[in-house]
Design brief:
FAD-bind_Monooxygenase_sf, FAD/NAD(P)-binding domain, 17% strand, FAD/NAD-bd_sf, 14 helices, alpha/beta, NAD(P)/FAD-dependent oxidoreductase
Length: 509
Amino acid sequence: MGQHVTGRPSIAIVGSGFSGLCMAIKLKEAGIDDFVVLERAPDVGGTWRDNTYPGCACDVPSHLYSFSFEPYAGWTRVFAQQPEIQAYVQRCFDKYDVRRHVVLNAEVDGAEFDGQGWRVRLRDGRVFESNVLVSAAGALSNPAYPNIPGRESFKGEQFHSSVWNHDYDLTGKRVAVIGTGASTIQFLPEIQPKVGKLVLFQRTPPWILPRPDRAFGALELEAFAKIPGLAWLYRQSIYWKYECRALGFTVHPSIMKAAALMGRRHIRRSIKDPKLREMVTPKFMPGCKRILMSNDYYQALEKPNVEVVPGAIAAVNERAVVTKDGQSFDVDAIIYGTGFAVHEQVWPVAIYGRNGVSLETVWKDGPEAYLGTTIAGFPNLFVLTGPNTGLGHNSMLYMIESQVHYIMECIKLMRERSVTFVDVREPLQKSYNERLQNRLKKSVWSSGCASWYLDKNGKNTTLWPSFTFAFRARTRRFKPADYELGKVKVRAVRPAPEPQPVLNGRPAL
């Protein structure tokens, strides 16, 4: 059993992706070793562990899609592909000695605040108790499947892009692809040359711009590695270039007309068939839905073995996909490129705060938090990549580092003042979110289209409506006056019942 700890909070982190890793590293740097990372999978890495579909890559340049405190000069491409990003994550786990804190195959089933701290239940029956709970589960962790009648009756192969079945040979097969999101844009050109027939079911075409990707040359790699400050300057140039895009999303949406011109020109240059051009040209303002990037998606759609089917799907039967206008397409396999359940913030399990109130009840009208990080009525619970911290224009790692800094400021205060209970004041959280939602109403995301940015009530609970440096300024200092502070008995992180997880030959906790 873990040693009882006094004078500092003990911490449980749920998730081992970029956000969980960043939290763990900053705890280690602060000399806090009494924490555990609960990971439901058999390995660490989060999104970049799970998404191994052909062509999987980041849509933020590599030098910016990495921790500011752990730059990497050896990225081989402008936009890194999945294996390289996952390798970076693995190196960070090893370099900062975080791996020994990780408990694998530890899927969370629920959590409750019992007045003293948090009890986190796992599906296998174990219970972890901690004073502080950090959700680093991430918004892109649970695949979303379309609600299509008969989907379970299909006799062929079917899988989501985030759980790609690499054992299934697509060569010569008739394949249906449902969804035209970021994953589809990447994997469709990769599988098109292999399949016998590819039918793309497109409900709404996305805006797609050219992807300025290329491999770095040997001289560039050598310069990044040997010239002091060059990689940092390059990173800064990327950041400010991408940060300027917030002007079009949130400040002057009319700027997005220029993006529409670029998108239409990209279609004209890539597709010869005027009918197909019309079919893939969006009817909404760029940015209302996520803007995607690809140099080969449109070209793939014009290949002889590809058919684009616009409109909605009515049903799936044992061997075919049937559209609402009555067309039936016999296929051997269905691949769902339908994104993630992004509105299942924290994680999609039962969470109970003060007085036994569930988070589901509190969030019945949509998720909200203070600075996307703390939730009134749920003391000592911190959410990374929480409500309205998502971005449409820059790197999420910048937001993650900002949130982690804020949480660390809180934890340092708790240690210095022997405070073990922090709960954000509800009026402050309410006024913060009212201002945030008012600003979102003026953004391009509220210009009329239906997107995964909006919940079932049409409320944008996903995106941050301003510059990322503005969010960093808001999270630079933890203000005690914003919170109810108290003292409860400090508990060590400990699992129960037996057996304890054992890492490195000793009890992990």
